[in-house]
Amino acid sequence: MPLSYRELVQGLQRLGLPAGKPVIAHASLKSFGEVRGGAETLLGALLGVFPHLMMPTHTYQTMLIPEEGPADNAIQYGSGRDQNAMAVFFTPDLPADPLMGILPEVLRKHPQAKRSTHPILSFAGVGVDETLTTQTLAEPLAPIRVLNEEEGWVLLLGVDHTVNTSIHYAEKLAGRRQFVRWALTPGGVVECPGFPGCSLGFEKAAPLLQAVTRETMIGTARVRALPLTEMTGLLVAALQEDPLAFLCDDPTCERCAATRQALARE
Ligand SMILES: [Zn+2]
Fold first, then answer.
1. What start and end residues bound the annotated signal peptide (predicted)?
2. For 149-193, what is each residue's pLDDT tens digit?
3. How many Cα atoms occupy the beta-carbon half-sphere of 176 within 13 Å?
């Protein structure tokens, strides 16, 4: 039997999140098995339970690699000539990168949705209009800062912490190295500072975060919810204790290598 709207709503309500708090969600539609009505039904259920809903709608297809730039930036300058030729301009209606899954794109197209304007790291949402306006080129993670201040929640719907964007905010607070990237816009190439590191090691934070994690199964999807303020506090403390925490184990990962090298120099 495919999952119904009602079963999705009941599953989300089982998490028992405090009413009215904003939520940043990351989702794999496929993880739920068959859903009657697909992504629109899942989004409808999410908005029915969480009327202040935000998701990342990042657009990596705008990125360029310049011929030169700042040192120790985890990038091979001059290596992007083929990629640069394929880069597209950021516009507010540029679809979210398919890497984000289908749901952010369905949210972005919702009639009540707004989207922030960062050419790589935009967010979209319903009922979070003011939060979205806080994002700037200098502070790409500002919407997550605001959700922290408002005691919002992270929702992982059939996905793990490797897509939990809010962990990047904790990294920034803990003083972890940030990078510079570049994006194509109708106004020219824009420098984007404050670009976060790699997230492939973030599931290593799951045991630490277990104490504040609420969990349920909805169909075949494992759904986890975490309160942002508590999550961020635990992560910052862990990063201060071990500045190498939550880096990935891929020896070819440029950003994790740059982070390790920066720490070794200190
Ligand atoms: Zn990495």
1. none
2. 999 999 999 999 999 999 999 999 999 999 999 999 999 999 999
3. 32
200 C-alpha vs ligand 1 centroid, how far in Å? 6
Classified as helix, coil or strand, 149 is helix
The string of pLDDT tens digits covering residues 103-142 is 999 999 999 999 999 999 999 999 999 999 999 999 999 9
Q: Any idea what DSSP says for residue 171? A: H
- Residue 5 parent element (H or E): helix 5-14
Please, which residues bridge with residue 194 across strands?
A: none
Identify the pLDDT of residue 198: 97
Rounded to the nearest angstrom, the distance between the alpha carbon of 111 and the centre of ligand 1 is 37
Q: How remote is the CA of residue 258 from the centroid of ligand 1, in Å?
A: 9
Quote the ligand 1 centre to 48 CA distance (angstroms). 36
Residue 164 CA, ligand 1 centroid: distance in Å: 14
Band of pLDDT at residue 1, cut at 50, 70 and 90: confident
- CA–centroid distance, 167 to ligand 1, in Å, is 14
Ligand 1 center to 36 CA (angstroms): 37
Q: What is the pLDDT of residue 194?
A: 97
Rounded Cα gap, residues 266 and 263, in angstroms: 5
Q: Residue 188: what pLDDT?
A: 94
Distance 199 CA to ligand 1 centre (A): 6
| Enclosing H/E stretch for 223 | strand 221-227
Q: Cα(171) to centroid of ligand 1, in Å?
A: 13
Strands in 153-157's sheet, in edge-to-edge order, are 114-115, 123-126, 53-56, 23-27, 153-157, 221-227, 214-218
Distance 255 CA to ligand 1 centre (A): 6
β-sheet bridge partners, residue 183: 63, 190
